[in-house]
Amino acid sequence: MSAVDTSNDNKAQRQKQLQNWLKSFTRKATLTNTLASIFGVANGLLIIVQCWCLASLIHGLVMDAAPFSDVSQLAIIFVVSGVFRALCLYAKEWFGFKTGEIIRVTVRSQLLASMDRMGPAYISRFSQGHWSTVLIEQVEDIQDYYAKYLPQMRMAMFIPIFILVAVFPLNWAAGLVLLCTLPLIPLFMWLVGQGAADANKRNFIALGRLSGHFLNRLQGIETIKRFNRQAQQSKAIHEASEDFRSRTMDVLKLAFLSSAVLEFFAAISIAVMAVYFGFSYIDHLNFGHYGAGISLFVGLFCLMLAPEFYQPLRDLGTHYHARAQAVAAADSLYDVIHAKPTVSAQASSKIAETFGIGLVAKDMVVCSQDGQPLTQPINFDIKPGQAVAVVGPSGCGKTSLINALLGFLPYSGRLQNSPKLEQITWLGQSPKLFNGSIRDNLRVANQSATDQQLKAALIEANAAEFVNELDRMVGDQQQGLSVGQAQRIALARAMLKNASVILLDEPTASLDPENKQQVNNAIAQWQQQNTLIMVTHELPSNLVFDQIIRLQPLANKEVCS
Amino acid sequence: MKALMPFVRLFARHWGWMSLGLLLSLLTLVMAIGLLSLSGWFISASAVAGLTVATSQAFNYLIPAGGVRGLSIGRTAARYGERLVTHNATFKLLTEMRVWLWNKLLPLSIGQLTRYRQADLLNRLVSDIDTLDHLYLRLLTPMLASLSVILLLGGFLAIFDATAAWFLCCLLLSLWLLLPPLFYWLGKRPGEATLQAKQAFRIRSIELVSHASEARVFGYQQRLQQQLNDAQDVLLNNQAKLAKITGLSQAVIIVASAVAVFGVIAIASQSVMSSTYSGPILALLVFATMASFEAMLPVAGAFQYLSATIKAAVRVSDVVEQQPMIEYQGHEQLNVNRETAIEFQNLAFQYPQQDNPVFVNLDMKVALKERVGIIGPSGIGKSTLLALINRQWQPSDGQIKVFDTPLEQIQETSLRQNLVTIGQVVHLFNATLAENLRIAADVNDEKLVEVLKAVGLDSLLQQPQPLEQWLGEGGRTLSGGEQRRIEIARALLTGAPIWLLDEPTEGLDSDTEQQILHLLTELPYQPTMLWVSHRPQHEQYFDRVINIGEFQSK
């Protein structure tokens, strides 16, 4: 029992923490946030003005039999207040949007800063889909919390108070009706909310499993067709979808009750007001008016304000999901922004040599950022200008070693002469070229390179077919280039960087034999003066290595300190 | 607009629930207007009656006071009912649309479907279907309910004051007619631009993430971040336009309601002055006018998003209106007791819109229970050959026979029962282990356990109720090797005599690769195998190899 309690406690604590964190961002947009609330509340004040005018108008026309021209001034104030209300609502919407915009920009830049700080090893722990969801959907999900929910919350706090202030001096009985229902509302909503939460919890696992059902079957449509299960699955989709409907309806039946409670209070208070004032006028009731009597004006004014008293709360209810959505999104946003390595990468010392750096490792264990060992202790002594192959079964940490040499992952033990990122050039398994011309893509490696030098590098990388196409555009995800072509351009880029250490992580893994041969030939030409470390699972026949480092699988004895 | 018609027609199937929802939403509005108008009239009338003792005593307060109470409770109940019914109807429509989409997608060939899988369009398709339910909840219901309210209210008010009723009706009707096209027109461009901007932003953020290492080594993070920020600016600009339109839609309704009240008072005060009717009727008219705008609130807002709904409808229609590339018209049942399992006669294939054929003059027989390796460099058309047997494509020339029957003459079910394909991607359904296996055949639990043991998945059986364990999203994650074993278990369950294998060990580490190779060559029964591989070391497992490269046109 206590285990469940603690986990619920933790959950509640986490929710609280996330909410406070979300709220703390309003400091970045104090002005717009305040303005949105002010215009929202001003709209409420103008409603009171409008009701005042209208009640006086009707009183004058009905009780005093005044001609319209006598009261036309009130009518004009009524319309003008309406125009101002429209302006207020427009301004509220605009400043609310601006608040959300400023905060979204802030959150995104914090996300990017954190990703930058944590580096590629952290980024690669999650899928690209995960990151695009975090950067886009989850950040977008916090918008309405700032744009709609927060201003509405201020309105729900202030407008009912203003209405009470307007009503009480005229008639305490009417004021009391409103005042008494106010604490009942949160009570009922809490009761109903509990029930909805319970129903939700009961259905939680089933709903979770059902929600992705249709997409999952669509993704598996090939498999279903292969096994000839089309008709059966079409029935299953129908059933799952209906099951989802009935379970969701179970939850909604209770969830809608909470808004029904508000509706009920709004409607009942109108009814009570109408009956109270009606009966007072025909002398069946006689209280609430401080002995001053009740004019039709007072009755109409209170009656008109009664629904407005509950309206801000009802509107808050419709924005309630904005808050829930924001807190849900904050869950992962918070984690990314506050990500910290438990073990930090070692600072490397700058080395004077221009090319050919020797590296010495002694009991070097590469660690993940949360302190898990990723390799067995590694020992090597690489002389300047040597070519070294790193081999070993999959999962033994070959790529982790490269990442540690790049400074993306921390390690324990010793690594002497570890080079700085500026001194390293690198080529990975799958080439990544960005959207831009081939020239742009090559020049990032060497800003001062002339077209002649770029062409020379392309020829050297066996990518001679592109030599006269420096202006050719590379599309998103290397559109228009084959994997082999892209890899050879990436090789030229790696060659253009003025570096003393070459790190290669299975550069030919995704290539067919012909391209493989070409890339390996180019590497053999290039390597001669520089220190080269190449991770590979089969030793290429046309490359000569001075040393081969064999990594063993982890023995689970390694520690990161 | 025309794009929405197929969906509106689908909705017709649930007209009962839908009209009940509409009716309740109308009832809610009528009761809300009734409550305020009756209350306004009641207190004005009693105030007038209270002026003298005689009128005060004669005033019948019981009926209106009871009416006020009844309406206030009725409105709450109707609103609650409306929300339940409309949501229930929406979910029913969703089911209808899903099943419809599924049945439309089924006849498309695997080649046509693969395009959607790869580009992640399926995700979008599912959210498009979800968007289309707005059509009922946000568009049809509020529009029809508000129109009915306008007409009913006009009729009701005309009893008291025809001029005021005309004025109000004309004002509301012109809002009802003008606001939707206005806000549709206003929202169209920024709405579409927002969608595009989001797409561009997604591409930029994926670029930023996938270039994480390169960008650091070659120092172009700034460039990527700048591009991402530019994409964000475009998105924010268009969202700002939409926010202004939302603000405008609220403002228009507020101003219109003030003008409406002003007009009704001006008109009604003339009648009161000329004693056409009494003062409390004026109060009734004013309160009814104020309340009627509750029905107008959704009219402007809903249309801001119509363009997005139409776009979704167009995209879904584009997918479902494709002609299936291959139609199964054959009726032959396969007779598996033949000596030749598969025969290629003078086969040639060329992809549409490509200059060179993949292969020509391919002649070959595969005997029953023979294990044939298809080798050759990548991109040469090894997988294409399997796709042709699977009828994902139509040969350009020549023909393929399975058990001596030409492919075109075989009934679809019979072909599927006798062929299984094992590829590199294994689809695990979000379902139990048993359901994941029973995709292949309806067999009892004992048989499932037996097959799981045969493929070396004993590890999955080490827990209570192993067949009920959940796989896929939110369930147990399986390693690449385990996933291949599941696929092999499925194939075994079908008992199909011909297996097509498309690099079934690709992407596995060498230990697992050996285990899977072993498993595939030591199966409980020996199917005919056509096995695509680019690894020379696999050749020892085949009875015979053919090199597709030999059939290229020179």
UniProtKB/TrEMBL annotation, chain A:
Domain ABC transporter: 359-561
Topology of this chain in the membrane: Multi-pass membrane protein
Residues that span the membrane, as ranges: 35-59, 71-91, 153-170, 254-281, 287-306
GO terms assigned for molecular function: ABC-type transporter activity; ATP binding; ATP hydrolysis activity; ATPase-coupled lipid transmembrane transporter activity
GO terms (BP aspect): cysteine transport
Domain ABC transmembrane type-1 per the UniProt entry, residue ranges: 35-325
Keyword Electron transport (UniProt): no
Subcellular location(s) of the protein: Cell inner membrane
Any Pfam family hit: ABC_membrane
Top-rank taxon, per record: Bacteria
GO-annotated cellular components: plasma membrane
Name listed for the protein in its UniProt record: Thiol reductant ABC exporter subunit CydD
Phylogenetic placement of the source organism: Bacteria, Pseudomonadati, Pseudomonadota, Gammaproteobacteria, Alteromonadales
TrEMBL record, chain B:
Transmembrane intervals: 135-159, 165-186, 251-269, 281-306
Major subcellular site: membrane
Subcellular locations according to the entry: Cell inner membrane
CDD domains from the UniProt entry: ABC_6TM_CydC, ABCC_MRP_Like
Residue ranges constituting the ABC transmembrane type-1 domain according to the UniProt record: 20-308
A GO molecular-function annotation: ATP hydrolysis activity
Pfam name, any one: ABC_membrane
A GO-annotated cellular component: plasma membrane
Domain ABC transporter: 342-554
Gene Ontology terms: biological process: amino acid transport; cell redox homeostasis; glutathione transmembrane transport
Topology in membrane: Multi-pass membrane protein
Xref: SMART domains: AAA
Reaction(s) this enzyme catalyzes, per UniProt: glutathione(in) + ATP + H2O = glutathione(out) + ADP + phosphate + H(+); L-cysteine(in) + ATP + H2O = L-cysteine(out) + ADP + phosphate + H(+)
PROSITE patterns in UniProt: ABC_TM1F (PS50929), ABC_TRANSPORTER_1 (PS00211), ABC_TRANSPORTER_2 (PS50893)
Alphabetic keyword roster: Amino-acid transport, ATP-binding, Cell inner membrane, Cell membrane, Membrane, Nucleotide-binding, Translocase, Transmembrane, Transmembrane helix, Transport
Similarity field: Belongs to the ABC transporter superfamily. Cysteine exporter (TC 3.A.1.129.1) family.
PANTHER family, sorted: ATP-BINDING CASSETTE SUB-FAMILY B MEMBER 10, MITOCHONDRIAL, ATP-DEPENDENT PERMEASE MDL1, MITOCHONDRIAL
Subunit structure: Forms a heterodimer with CydD.
Protein name, per record: Glutathione/L-cysteine transport system ATP-binding/permease protein CydC
